[in-house]
Structure formats: C-alpha cells, structure tokens
Amino acid sequence: MTVHDVTHMSRCPVCGGGALPLLFLESQPIYQHPVAASEPVPGPFSVDLEWAQCEACGHAWQREFVPELLESIYRNHYYTPAPGGMAIQFRDEFLRAMDDFGVLARRGALLEIGASDGDVLLALTRRMEATRAFAFEPNATNASVARQRGLTVYEKFFDRHARDSLPCAVEIALSRHVIEHLFDFDGFFAGIESVTSRDATLVLETPSLEHHAGRGSLAPFHVEHIHVFSKRSLARLARRFGWQLVRDRVTDDGNLIAVFARCEPGGSVSCDPNVRFEGLQAAVDALRGHLRWLVDGRPLVFWGAGSAAIGIVRSIGREPDYWTDGNPNKVGLVFPGCTREIVSPEEALSARNFRPADRPLLVIASSFVREILPRVTAMGWADEIVDMNGRSI
Ligand SMILES: [Zn+2]
Known about the structure:
Helix content: 25-40%
Bound molecules: zinc ion
Largest sheet: 7 strands, mixed
CATH architecture of the largest domain: 3-Layer(aba) Sandwich
Mean pLDDT: 90
CATH topology of the largest domain: Rossmann fold
CATH superfamily of the largest domain: Vaccinia Virus protein VP39
Low-confidence stretches: none
Distance between the termini: 42 Å
CATH class of the largest domain: Alpha Beta
Structural class: alpha/beta
C-alpha cells in the first residue's frame, strides 16, 4: 500500500454536504472472512478507520480508503457460501418485505447485482414466475454456486457497461448489501439506467444507519463499508439518478429495504428529518471496555466466523479458545492474521474443553442469534451466553 492508492473524501459523496465527525475505530480487521489455512494473504491485517457524517443528509462515509485493496478482497476473500437452509433469516425478511410491498406481483426479467450464491434471486424467480433471471457476482466461488443453480451469472463487477452483457432489459433490478461498498455511484446508476425498462422497479437493501448507530451497534462499521446510509441519504442518492423512494422498511436486524420507481433526476427528498448520532463514539468505547471486562481471564468460545467476530477479536485483543460457525464450509478455515482454525460446533462446545469453575463464555458473534440459540441449547451448553454487544441471552 502506498500513499498514492488512498482515496480521500472530504465532502459527502451523496450530496456534497460538509463532514462532521462520527466514529473512529482503531486497529480494525482488513479481512472480514476466513480463508483456507494454506492460502497466503499478505499483511497488514488491521487498519484504523474513520467515518464522517454529512451535516445535510445524514450520510456516513469513510474519509479515506484504498480501492484496490477492497476490490481484491471482494474477488478473493468474500464469504463462504453456506449450504441450503443456512442464514435464511435475512433472505426471508427480504422476501416478506417484497410480498408486503407488492413487488412479487411483477413478472418478466429480473437482475440481481451482487447475487452471492443466488439464493434470493432463485426464490424471487420462482415466486414471480419470471421468464429470465440474471446475476452479476464478482466472486468466483459464489458465481460458481449460483451457476450450478441454473442462473445466468456474469462474474464481474456491475458498472456502466452492464448492458453489453445482458441480452434484454429487466423489469426489476435488485441489489442487496452492495451499495454500501461502492466507490463509484455514477457507474452503478448508469448501469442500472441502461439495463432497466421504462416502468422498472429498483430494490436496494443496505444496513440502516439509524438502526445501528442509534443502538451503538458497530455491525455496519467495517473496512468494506465505505458508506452507511441513512434513509434520507439513500433516498437522496437514488433521486439524484432518477429513482424515487416509494416504500421502505427497516427489519428487526437493522437492514433498510427500499423500493424505488422512476422519476425525473434531481430535486429534493421529503422524508425523515436529518439524524445525528453524537453519542455513538462514547457508546462504542464503552462497549469495547465492557467486552474486554467480560472476557478477561475466561475460556472463550465464539459462534460466528464473519465480520462481527473478527471485529470483536480486534477490539478485545485476543482470539477465542474455540471458534466455530453454523456454516460447515468454514470448518478448517482461518482468518488472515489469526491462528485459531474454525472447528465444528460439536468440537467447540464439547464439555471436555471446559471446567465450569473457569466460567467459560460463549459469544454469539453473528446477526443470526435466533437461528443459532436453539442449536446451542440443544447441544447442552449451560454456561453464560452473550451476543456481540455483550448482552446476556
Ligand atoms: Zn450528504
């Protein structure tokens, strides 16, 4: 990494408004996902991150980032696809919102930008009896799984040249958990403009700034998220490119799901008043202190081997003694810069590993607490369990 690679954004990338300080996080992990132990990943493994907040539209963004590093992460180190039935909570909440918003009644050609393993696109295609379904997915592993499921997958980043790939225009374009990663809004929306029909619907899902910052949750604040959108900033951005917010919802897990219809580009948005999170830094510092106190001197198990877990490891300055995940495809993998291999839940939670007198602690370092907790209970874990915010559950 050289100084020339760093992109600086001193003003709001959505509206050009001035920057207010929001959050500084020291020594955050660069790689959010575990990789094969044999796969060499060059250091460094951590970086200091800083988010500003727009005084006009509430948008949160990283003041400095390295585009080349992030592109390399997306291509090579993105998450491990889970077998069918895993991590279905987000997918089902998304489908429920689509149903409630009346989007599922639409038929025709669909496009998903950043389709991961194709799980959601496949479900939508079936529900809508769509005639064609296309996916853009730059990660080779994900693209391969999606292709095996019968989807047409373009293994590349979506940009202004997307129309060159697609054989026809689409009536619905959706993109889940992509827009917060983008360096180039112009290219993304130019691509959408070129591939959608005149009466098309655009659906975006992204972590809600109001939900997370309002609760002192760090979940969306990691290296890969250049942006964390407020409802106002997402509406304003889409409006700039000719899309008007028509329906929206924030799920219990803190994801903003928003549906847009075409409109004249530009103009103001009249949605929620601006939001400020002046207490976020103090809340985050307190959380870090609480977690360090909680784990001090205790045997530690993590359930969850994703961005939340590695974030906690960097925050508390130690790895768990046992590290597991509900996704069996992660067993045997290691986070770059860490030493502990991910093991099966049975191995991690085995009673042989712990003496009750040592007060072992299980941290569910994942958003999927509702799916994980019944499994933990069924496996007989009787010691303390906390979520990623250090709250007992
Ligand atoms: Zn702004």
